[in-house]
Design brief:
Blueprint: H1 2-8, H2 14-21, H3 25-51, H4 53-70, H5 76-88, H6 91-103, H7 106-120, H8 126-138, H9 141-161, H10 177-200, H11 205-225, H12 235-238, H13 244-270, H14 280-309, H15 311-331, H16 336-352, H17 355-364, H18 373-397, H19 404-423, E1 430-432, E2 444-446
Antiparallel strand pairs: 1-2
Helix pairs in contact: 1-9, 3-4, 3-5, 3-10, 3-18, 4-5, 4-6, 4-9, 6-7, 6-17, 7-14, 7-17, 8-14, 10-11, 10-18, 13-14, 13-18, 13-19, 14-15, 14-16, 15-16, 15-17, 15-19, 17-18
């Protein structure tokens, strides 16, 4: 929850952040946030295979608290550093799903996946509403003050109640730190290429430099992967249809559907010219809170259904439904209460029905040899997807024309259709779940 608030509570504060720290400050803060999440996921989640999940979880929550304290600064460069440290705590979700997968099964696992997914979307929508009030009353820094308190409580909870790691469950061998450097450069380079390309142009010098970094780092990663006994990633597993389509779908879903919730809708609600001209409180109350409430109420149910009919199947259904909802948003972009109603439906189709299975599949589709590799890369794809989303949505939404938001919605629809196509390339991995069957038998199931 403490990590999630760093993303969800800032949505109603976009205008206040830009007015206080300077034009474009919100995007400048967002890029390092998602960059750190991408790098931390591919490196630290895998490292937890060796040092233990609980130890890694405690350390990263402490780092998040330090970053939150820095975000109280009035200096944008210091806030950017703070957001980078906060973003690294994105791995709390990957670690949590790995812990749940080791200790729970069957319907219980599905329900808990739904609960985790609903937390990832905020705290029943009350966080966004509260953030709107706090922003209008005290400014956006009050949000970071609250998050710091929640983060310190989280440290105590993790320390006392998260189960200790079993030494026998840790991976053999040693961490591939050379591979970690190259995959961090690859993932980080992709994120920075998308960020710079979207703002400075895809052929600009910064964008081309980062693209060159990506190419060189990836080639080096392939060489190292083939020469070490325990590679960081294990590219032979990532190349299978059980892995790479999941990564692509995650990137595309984040670059389309979640940009609607995190950027397009708040911008449209607060835009006084092309949008509805609302303040932060009303933006949260009308557009953000209802979707989060629906997610909290329905995500556990979606998780349980996914155990029965398949996580991949549920994800595909959710993608189709969300494409329809966003298309309707494009049609009714000028009608405030139509968008309000559609955001309620969006809370079920996307936040619950897409994100619940999507957030779980990284663990379910992972190889048995390196269980932390695919979850790390899949979670890093969230950050890369958001970076891609900001890259294309920023210039469109910032253009300020009457058709601005319709164009953004239709772009999301197009990207969503591509994501749906790749979802059919994803082959569910057979999973030996122990007592995973709902009746307690040791059934051989898949994540179909």
């Amino acid at each position: 929850m403490s990590f999630s608030l760093n993303a969800t509570m800032l949505a109603p504060a976009v205008r206040d952040i830009n007015q206080t720290l300077g034009p474009g400050a919100f995007v400048a803060m967002s890029t390092p946030f998602y960059l750190a999440g991408a790098i931390a996921n591919v490196v630290l989640v895998r490292w937890s295979d060796y040092v233990g999940r609980k130890r890694m979880l405690i350390g990263i929550v402490i780092v998040m608290c330090i970053g939150t304290a820095l975000c109280l600064s009035t200096s944008l460069p210091i806030v950017v550093v703070g957001r980078f440290l906060q973003g690294a705590s994105n791995i709390t979700y990957g670690l949590a799903f790995l812990i749940l997968r080791n200790r729970l099964s069957g319907a219980t696992f599905g329900i808990c996946c739904g609960v985790m997914a609903s937390i990832n979307g905020g705290v029943a929508g009350g966080d966004a509403f509260l953030a709107g009030i706090m922003t209008d009353t005290w400014g956006y820094r009050s949000i970071f003050g609250l998050i710091l308190v929640v983060g310190l409580i989280a440290v105590a909870f993790v320390w006392k109640w998260v189960p200790a790691d079993e030494h026998s469950a840790r991976a053999e061998g040693r961490m591939d730190w050379i591979g970690a450097v190259f995959i961090a450069l690859t993932v980080g380079g992709i994120t920075m290429f998308l960020s710079n390309g979207g703002h400075a142009g895809w052929t600009s010098t910064p964008a081309l430099v980062w693209l060159a970094v990506v190419v060189v780092a990836f080639i080096a990663l392939v060489v190292v992967d083939n020469r070490v006994e325990h590679p960081l990633v294990g590219l032979r597993h990532i190349r299978t249809r059980e892995a790479w389509p999941l990564i692509v779908v995650t990137v595309l879903v984040m670059a389309s559907f979640m940009v609607v919730l995190g950027f397009i809708i708040p911008s449209m609600a607060e835009d006084p010219d092309s949008g509805f001209g609302l303040n932060a409180t009303m933006t949260a109350l009308l557009f953000l809170t209802p979707a989060a409430v629906v997610q909290v109420l329905t995500a556990p149910f979606v998780g349980r259904i996914a155990v029965r009919i398949g996580f991949v199947t549920v994800m595909r259904i959710g993608i189709v439904a969300t494409i329809v909802v966003i298309a309707l948003m494009a049609v009714f972009a000028d009608h405030k209460y139509a968008i309000v109603a559609l955001m309620v439906v969006f809370g079920f189709t996307c936040c619950a029905t897409v994100l619940t299975p999507l957030s779980s599949l990284g663990v379910l589709q992972a190889s048995d040899e390196a269980p932390g590799a695919l979850p790390g890369i899949a979670n890093a794809s969230y950050g890369m997807g958001f970076s891609l989303g900001f890259a294309w949505a920023g210039p469109i939404v910032g253009s300020g024309t009457d058709s601005t938001f319709q164009q953004a919605f239709w772009t999301c629809v197009a990207i969503g259709v591509i994501a749906l196509g790749f979802s059919f390339a994803l082959r569910p991995k057979p999973i030996m779940t122990g007592a995973a069957a709902p009746d307690g038998s040791t059934a051989h199931q898949t994540s179909r």
